[in-house]
Amino acid sequence: MRYVENSQKRESTPMVDKPNFNMTPVHVPDEVLEGLKKLPTATVYGAVRGFGSTLCVCEGLMTFSPGEKLAARARTIRFLPPREDLKAEKTPGEGLVEYVAMGRCGPGDVLVADISGDERTVVAGDVKLLQLAMNKADGVVIDGAIRDLGVLEDEDYGLAVYATARSLHGSIDLTPAEENIQIQCGGALVRPGDVMVGDDDGVIVVPSWMAEEVLRTATEKEEVENYVKEKIKAESVAPGKYYPPSEESYAEWRQIKNERGL
Length: 262
What we know:
disordered N terminus, 27% strand, 13 strands, alpha/beta, 8 helices
């Protein structure tokens, strides 16, 4: 870790050196997902940006399952405007693209749908999302609208839900076109296997190949910030005395953590 001097303060603000990443997509293990669930999404966001992935926020999406924390591998699907030739190419019934995409989802996975932010069209409700519930998937992230939330709650589907809006429209204006491909969601690139991390603040994309390092960096930052808050409250001083955390704060915390055997 290196540090740059803040011209407005006579202390240093930590800056994280970018690891020499191998940017090949990888399978993110469950223990990394569980670790990310313990962190505020805002803290994870800072680590992702620090490693150079600046367009990682799914802009315009909000939670429809307040209090639920999401950290799951993305299984993707893209919808396109309807046209008869496109519809004719699609397998009906159980072979429909959206059911294939949902079939890929199990524990630790989340369905991520690109419908270009269309809030007039709903691509999922209680019947379709039942497949995700039966597979014990973690949730659904839709760049567009969702409906039947009351049923999802009453019947305890157990899904974390993110979307741009709640609506009663159907899916007549879109056609499920492709699954397990690169898509956009709220302006952020999502590749299959990336980690979607969300809470009540919103949802972001963590590239799979940096997820483990993001967890390590974000965990330490959260620990240091909690340590700084302890000092602020103990001394009854303005946050600016210790925040943002300085090089000294990081060093102090590492020593204390070692002494406590944490």
